[in-house]
Amino acid sequence: MALQGFDAQHFLDTAWQRKAVLIKAALPGFECPLDGNDLAGLACEEDVDSRIIIEAKDGWELRNGPFQEDDFATLPTSHWTLLVQGVDQYLPELADLMAMFRFLPRWRTEDIMVSYATDGGNVGPHYDQYDVFLVQGSGQRRWKIGGHCGPDTPLHSHPQLKLLQHFETEQEFLLEAGDILYVPPGVAHWGVAEGDDCMTLSVGFRAPSEAALLGDFSDEIASRSDESKRYQDPQLSAAANPGEISPAVHAQLKAVLLKQLDNDALLARWFGEMMTRVPDQSEFRDDSLSRDDFAELRAQGIDLHLRLGARLAFDEQHLFADGVAFACPPQDRDDVRALCQIECGKSIGNFRNFSEEMLYALYCNATLYFDDDTYDS
Predict the structure, then answer these.
(1) Is the domain of 262 the same as that of 346?
(2) DSSP string, 22-67
(3) Which part of the chain is the JmjC domain (predicted)?
(4) What's the longest Cα–Cα distance across the chain?
(5) Which DSSP state fits 205?
(6) Overall number of domains in the chain
(7) Are 62 and 167 in a shared domain?
(8) What is the pTM of this model?
């Protein structure tokens, strides 16, 4: 199923990471896979990232979850929003929504945040550091689009909410169920619910900053560097000023650093691992099932499924799964490509060329699970 009335290539050529775009009636007859009660239930779970934002006369109030059922009974009748992060990790139905955006690199995927708002509910004027498709699930929300923002854009002094001091509307859209609004990184936007039961599903795509890329890659280089290799002086002159750092030293340092950077294999592996990394993935990993028991379950015909929220990518040498690089021999490449087209929560079927060792490793990595597993995926 594809977005209706939408030319993906034209969008990529003219709008992607450039400007906000409304895709009207992109999902005709769309029925939101959850309601406010479902979202409130998730917000009460200990391991779920949730918050409530209330607009009052004197500004915005932020409350962080997890919440208790009684917390919702004390909320005002209007002007509040419940936000829950990473709902696609808990709701299989959202895998179908994520599939609508596979014209974009899968490794750019972040998660789906869902918000429920009463009449007037909003989170204030702001901008994000990632690409986002705002899917209207139910009710109505009026979106105002402003200009591009940056590090020097003035913000309110709220200690936890990064809200814009000034907002000038350049575009305005009223979204109804099935409408989608795309907003690129750095573009100011402000959405206000019109009426109750307003549900918005935010499909986010990570856009790491250059600073984050440089910092993460330098950490990777440092972790693999040989501590026995030390700084060495260029040819020195006894007559030189002892306080001078000469151009020859600068050239020597540059050569050392560029040598470390000029490693295509390391760059490729690091980037694939970084872009598929999952927060707290180590908590999922489990090798308590022996290889023999794993093989026995496979022999019984029990299907392996792709974990909700799993992140996959591949290049010519590797399969990247949830922050781990797995060597990809030539005979496995077709299966790797096929695996990276399966949506989360679905059975992976029968990959005839995948070795049992590879499947077992992906199972221990919690990227794959058996459909009768009892752990919370």
Answers:
(1) no
(2) EETTSSTT---S--HHHHHHHHTSTTS-EEEEEEETTEEEEEES--
(3) 93-222
(4) 82
(5) E
(6) 3
(7) yes
(8) 0.91
Phi, psi (degrees; rounded to nearest 5) at 306: -85, 125
- pLDDT tens for 163-222 read 999 999 999 999 999 999 999 999 999 999 999 999 999 999 999 999 999 999 999 999
Q: Are 321 and 310 in contact (CB under 8 A)?
A: yes
For the sheet with 141-148, list strands across it. 171-175, 141-148, 187-193
pLDDT category at 372 given cuts 50, 70, 90 is low
Pair of tokens at residue 338: 């096929």
- 3-state secondary structure (DSSP) of residue 171: strand
Residue 214 lies in a domain: yes
Mean pLDDT of 66-71: 96
Q: Whole domain around residue 220: which residue ranges?
A: 209-224+255-271
Lookup result for tokens 């901008």 = 127
Asked whether 94 and 87 are in contact (CB, 8 A), the reply is yes
Same domain, 174 and 193: yes
